[in-house]
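Late entry, flavin-adenine dinucleotide complex.
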Amino acid sequence: MATATPDTYTEKTDEQKAIIEMVRQFADEQIIPNAEHYDHEDEFPEPIVEQMRELGLFGVTIPEEYGGMGLDLTTYVMIVEELSRGWISISGIINTHFIGSYLLMKFGTDEQKQRWLPRMATGEIRAAFSLSEPEVGSDVQAIKTSAKKVDDSEPAMYEINGQKMWVTNGLMSGLVFVLVKTDPDADPRHRGMTCFVAEKEPGVGENTGEYAGFTVPPKLKKMGYKGVESTELVFDGYRCPAENVLGGEQAGLNKGFAQMMDALEVGRANVAARGVGIAQRALELALRYSQERKTFGKPIAEHQAIQFKLADMATQIEAARLLTLKSARLKDAGERSDLEAGMAKLFASEAGRFCVEESFRIHGGYGYSKEYEIERLYRDAPLLLIGEGTSEIQRMVIGKKLLSRHKI
Ligand SMILES: Cc1cc2nc3c(=O)[nH]c(=O)nc-3n(C[C@H](O)[C@H](O)[C@H](O)COP(=O)(O)OP(=O)(O)OC[C@H]3O[C@@H](n4cnc5c(N)ncnc54)[C@H](O)[C@@H]3O)c2cc1C
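Prediction complete; structure with ligand written out below:
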């Protein structure tokens, strides 16, 4: 990687070219024309998700032996950029699933992989990822939801109690990778946390029977990022078998914080790709509209002030894409990419917001109309500044990593 040029980052293999062409066509034909309807109704886009299952998109990074495509993070972020160019809610349906499968592939026991990965590869069961709570987002170590061992006989059981917040895919998922406290006295706090794979009935609010005590309240009403549900989760005496501790009880107990932080690193490359995708779409809309709309006797694209906006947008997108692909390629090469993933997430999500706002301004009054796609993008883009760590948190991560890499 030392001699890498920008081309090294953007270059695609023949396989990547074919997949990206297919996903781009899917976005153009199935996502973009239908997004307005699902956004307006805040309705889960079931037919689109069904087609994503047929295309194998839920198993992109899952190894072939479990029925997935076995592709790398770089190819995955290329796919996410294309899906997000269509509508970021569609990439949202896949993202937490991708993080869940990453956690299983990296930390799961063989039995856990055999049990869940094949059905995850087909999208038959989908995954959610849950850290945040009503009073806790950035400061993950302050979570309160807890699990206590209540039965040591076979199968040994833990009981989970507490409340989670902002769980993307909280209702439709069948598996929730949930971080809870298992040792409240641990010092430092992060050594007392465990990731459980909590199972439930997809699409069911009030779970009963073996999943009793796991309730999904009605979805939260949001400014944008509609279609995909974000929910609270209430655990009230939910019994989770010890065998569902990620990595097994012996190896995984109290190791959850490190596991989840590792997953956030790939999650950040993935949010960066979403920033690039939404920014790219905003630029496409601006390029088109600015050549159609006339003021003072000529298309607004011929006014230098508008050209400068287009130039700044295109430059930011190029830089964001390079950072995103660099962080993914480093991770695929087995190198450290924590700093790079933080930079990519910070820059690309801010580029997404910037480009959407510039495109919105170029659209004049029509940008404010629900009949124009940019209005949806304007409501969708801010999420990327928040999810997987806010811009402030990314700067903290980048600053800390810089100092640890350059210690004197
Ligand atoms: C639509 C949506 C979907 C989401 N999906 C998920 C999901 O699937 N799973 C999940 O676990 N979470 C999810 N989240 C939650 C998200 O990760 C958190 O909202 C985010 O981490 C910020 O936490 P917070 O909202 O509690 O803000 P807070 O942590 O309360 O922060 C508030 C403000 O203070 C700033 N701040 C905090 N600490 C510092 C500091 N030390 N220095 C400087 N500034 C600071 C923040 O940057 C922010 O501006 C989702 C959120 C949304 C909106």
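The pocket of flavin-adenine dinucleotide is lined by residues 96, 129-132, 137-138, 166-168, 222, 225, 230, 383, 386-387, 389-390, 392-393 (CB under 6 Å). Will revisit in the morning.
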